[in-house]
Amino acid sequence: QVSPALRSPRVPVWLCSLSGRHGVLFGTDCRLLSDWKSERIFHLYFCSGQQQQTRTAHLTVDTHSHHWEEAPREGPGSPGHRRPALEMAIRTRWAGATVSWNGTDPFF
After folding, report:
1. What residues form the membrane-spanning segments (predicted)?
2. C-beta separation of 39 from 57 below 8 A
3. How far is residue 100's CA from residue 104's CA, in Å, rounded to a whole number?
């Protein structure tokens, strides 16, 4: 459980510890946390500093998408149904949001 105060910092920068690894999730638009209209579709970036991450991951977050618009999955325990830990962390702030990795293979 994440404290509401930690989910909404003054600037859109979050230090993450996911699966025992650390990284920085950040946005470049400071209005993201002060103007609710900015929370419809926005971009976040993630950098872990891990050797296997060769470039910063560019994520597009859509807070108004609907779960029934997603492609059907096999079953609740199938690999296609599981979400990366980074997406789950984003959803602690924006419940139900969909996250596009924009061509980057999901990690974390």
Report:
1. none
2. no
3. 9
Relative to beta strand 57-62, strand 98-100 is antiparallel
Q: What is the pTM of this model?
A: 0.76
What is the rounded CA–CA span in Å between residue 51 and residue 97? 29
In the 8-state DSSP scheme, what is residue 74?
A: S
| Tens place of pLDDT per residue across the chain (108 aa) | 666 666 667 788 988 888 888 999 999 998 888 888 888 999 999 998 777 777 889 999 999 876 555 555 544 455 555 788 899 999 988 888 999 999 888 876
Amino acid at 21: R
Q: Three-state secondary structure along 1-22?
A: CCCHHHHCCCCCEEEEEECCEE
